[in-house]
């Protein structure tokens, strides 16, 4: 597994506990809250670890101590993002998604913040396309996905951005705020837009993820892109939308955390094999 292949500098891998990495590489640096055990990984990266004595490498990668991670970094971020997801899911819709000819159309009109509520079955059945339209620039689209008994998924279909001043991939957020009891899995192959699912397990089986992913746990073999469709130098996939401010009881607005984290953030790495 190679990480941040198109990002030559910065902290591109954050691990709250221990890291075991076999082959692959990390561009830039890594912050490890425990120890790093490296085998046949690409040289060049610097691993900042808290447990220097327990760390080892056979490839010449630089391992130094300590890391820059606060002991509560991941727990604080998880609490903030869960609160943000719940808050967004409780907001009233400002517009209604239109199902037409197998496609799902999100028309924001002249709103700079468009909130839609769609059922899991509506989203899963939109096999003819997901279309985002706005008459103003940089509209933020929040798609709250409501449970209805259908397994959560995002269809592997085309995504388009239209309107007089079209939005782009960095302004779309799918919010899975309420996972059904007994089934907390979301499955998808290719996605354009960011996904906020801090309560859920995600199966990302193949294809490219063009956005930011926040998940409770993750498995799969897909790849994530910091540029839309992986085109280096093209449209950034980082979430840059403007979200409403949660109540003061929320530790930190989720929008700030989303912007401050990388393409994929997983809070329970035990199930992750992506």
Task: Note down, in words, how this protein is organized.
With 274 residues, the protein is mainly beta. It folds into two domains: 1-71, no CATH class; 72-271, no CATH class. The chain has three helices and 24 strands. The strands form six sheets. Strands 12, 14, 15, 17, 18, 20, 22 and 24 form an eight-stranded parallel sheet that branches. A four-stranded parallel sheet has the order 2-5-7-9, with no helix packed on it. It has a four-stranded mixed sheet with strand order 10-11-13-16, with no helix packed on it. Strand 10 and strand 11 (103-107) form a beta hairpin. Helix 1 crosses helix 3. It is elongated. 40% of the residues are buried.
Secondary-structure map with pairings?
Layout: E1 2-3, E2 11-15, E3 19-22, E4 25-26, E5 29-32, E6 36-39, E7 46-49, E8 56-57, E9 62-64, H1 73-89, E10 98-100, E11 103-107, E12 113-119, H2 120-124, E13 130-133, E14 140-146, E15 152-154, E16 159-162, E17 172-175, E18 185-188, E19 191-192, E20 194-204, E21 208-210, E22 213-220, E23 223-225, H3 254-260, E24 264-266
Parallel strand pairs: 1-4, 2-5, 3-6, 5-7, 6-8, 7-9, 11-13, 12-14, 13-16, 14-17, 15-18, 17-20, 18-20, 19-21, 20-22, 21-23, 22-24
Antiparallel strand pairs: 10-11
Helix pairs in contact: 1-3
Features:
274 residues; mainly beta; eight-stranded parallel beta sheet; four-stranded parallel beta sheet
Determine the mean pLDDT.
86
Total helix count?
Answer: 3
Q: Structural class per helix/strand content?
A: mainly beta
What Rg do the Cα atoms give? 19 Å
Helix content: 10-25%
Give a count of the beta strands, DSSP E runs of length 2 or more. 24
Q: Kindly, what is the distance between the CA atoms of the first and last residues, rounded to a whole number of angstroms?
A: 8 Å
How much of the residues is beta strand, in percent? 35-45%
Main beta-sheet annotation: 8 strands, parallel
**Which residues form runs of ≥5 with pLDDT under 50?**
269-274
Q: What is the H/E string?
A: EEEEEEEEEHEEEHEEEEEEEEEEEHE
Work out the count of structural domains: 2
Q: Tell me the overall shape.
A: elongated
